[in-house]
Give the backbone structure.
Amino acid sequence: MALKRTSLPRTAEAVALAELRDAIVRGDLAPGAPIRQGAAAQELGLSVIPVREALKTLAGEGIVTYVPQRGYTVTELSPQSVDGIFRVRELLEGEAEANAAARLRPEDIATMRAALDGQRAAAAAADAQGVISSNRRFHFALLDHCDNDWLLRFVKQLWEALEPHRALSYRRAAAAGDHGRAEAILGEHDAIVSAFENGDTPLALRLLAEHRAGGHSDFHRLLTSAEQGG
């Protein structure tokens, strides 16, 4: 599972939660993959109890699914689930972006530009994890300035529910040699950060909404194809 215990002074449950979440978000644990509590505990050098509690937390967030007699698996989303997630993102994330944009500083816009440069370099190197992490840095360079903690918490939860499928999408596209959508995303990010650099916040927010709609289509297409065996 590519889990490893960090040296940060955290509780055992916090370590388990962070490492399991990271493994899922990275795509090391793919949608539908079983999570064996004993194996995870052994890899982390922990007892089973904090791993079990961490999995309960992740299940509450919808990132993993518990089935009696079968245990925990990474949640597999259906096209209908993705539609629901993106509808809520449309409502909450648009509000969070508008809130955050009012507090965006020149150095934050520079952080967005740097994240885009990192994403472009990762895409050129076929580094799926680098693309995913840079993509998240790009968006949260803005979103982290939302001053409504509850709103930001729910936005992050929605992002994390999608991340395992995002990793799967990048890897499938790379294996098929399909770089068209990756290039389009880079172009959309460039237009967004350019609008902020030019002081045109309404344009940036509109482009972000259009970008989110494109992501909805991407996820829907990926999962529909999976259901049809494509």
